[in-house]
Design brief:
This protein is mostly helical. Helices cover about 70% and strands about 0% of the residues. It contains 10 helices and no strands. Helix 1 packs across helix 2 (about 15-55), helix 8 (about 215-225) packs parallel to helix 10 and helix 9 packs across helix 10. The termini are far apart.
Length: about 290
């Protein structure tokens, strides 16, 4: 216990050390986020198929246990089980030169990218907020956004398993005044959901098409729950600008088809991270005295 107290006081007294340790922690969490990004959509698909089978009066197909823990991670090409030494964030990828140790199949560079991004965000949070509850809460927020971003890129889905707990976590953290007061947090959650819900229905009535998914409503509601209604205009504006610039660039430079949907969740995540680090400065641009 005494050693733990000494370590705690050391991290509290040294912002640089706390940021470095937090960055290393983020790298490890990033490794787990890769599992979440890959497996959670597959777990959802299995649940949907099971539900459809039950509705049709059929016996759901059974198979081996598949969740975020089991089975052990393995190469999809040869089935080689990933050892602990092959699972060191970023470093293992570099040592293996981006290839499976068993069959030499190339490993996607996105795995170390997610790990590095989680580490960078965790270290930045620690440096910005310092040692305390705000950093722990902000870690939860940014890790959830990293997972949601890459799941949306892959599947055009923002799972309720992440967005809804993220929303409630924001309300709980702000219960006694975390990043904002509870009243602003509740109003932010309501306004975030209703704003994109309204945009969705106006777009659908005018064009007959769906411009976004319900997951986007829930994600903006979660961001509103974390930072209050005051930050929603900034988040929406930043997300829209980022989405427009990147979307147009993809169409012009990468010949991305106009009819191919572009996920909006990653851009909402960018706006949410901007609100986390520069919320007061952003809100102060249009809310004098905030």
């Amino acid at each position: 216990m005494e050693n733990l107290t000494q370590i705690t006081e050391l991290l509290r007294a040294s912002p640089i050390l706390f940021a470095v340790v937090s960055g290393m922690f983020g790298l490890m969490v990033g490794s787990f986020l890769n599992v979440v990004i890959y497996r959670l959509p597959k777990m959802m698909e299995r649940e949907w198929k099971r539900g459809c089978s039950e509705m049709q009066g059929e016996t759901p197909a059974t198979g081996p246990v598949y969740n975020l823990v089991m089975p052990r991670s393995a190469c999809p090409g040869c089935g080689h089980k990933i050892t602990a030494l092959e699972n060191i964030p970023v470093l293992s990828y570099l040592i293996l030169r981006g290839k499976c140790a068993g069959c030499k199949t190339p490993i996607s560079a996105r795995y170390p990218l997610v790990e590095a991004l989680a580490g960078l965000l965790a270290g930045s949070v620690a440096w910005h907020f310092g040692f305390g509850a705000s950093s722990v809460a902000a870690w939860l927020f940014v890790f959830a956004l990293v997972a949601l971003t890459f799941i949306d890129f892959d599947t055009q889905l923002l799972p309720d398993d992440i967005t809804l707990p993220l929303l409630w976590a924001g309300l709980v953290f702000n219960f006694n005044g975390g990043f904002t007061d509870l009243r602003s947090a509740v109003a932010g959650a309501m306004a975030g959901y209703l704003f994109l819900w309204s945009v969705y229905w106006m777009f659908k009535l005018v064009t007959g098409k769906e411009g976004m998914g319900y997951g986007d409503f829930k994600l903006l509601a979660a961001i509103g729950a974390w930072f209050g209604w005051q930050l929603l205009p900034a988040v929406i504006l930043l997300s829209s600008v980022a989405g427009s610039v990147i979307g147009i660039s993809l169409i012009v430079l990468a010949r991305h088809g106009r009819n191919v949907p572009i996920p909006f969740g990653p851009y909402l995540a960018m706006g949410g991270i901007a609100a986390l680090f520069w919320g007061h400065q952003l809100a102060g641009l249009y809310l004098p005295g905030y």
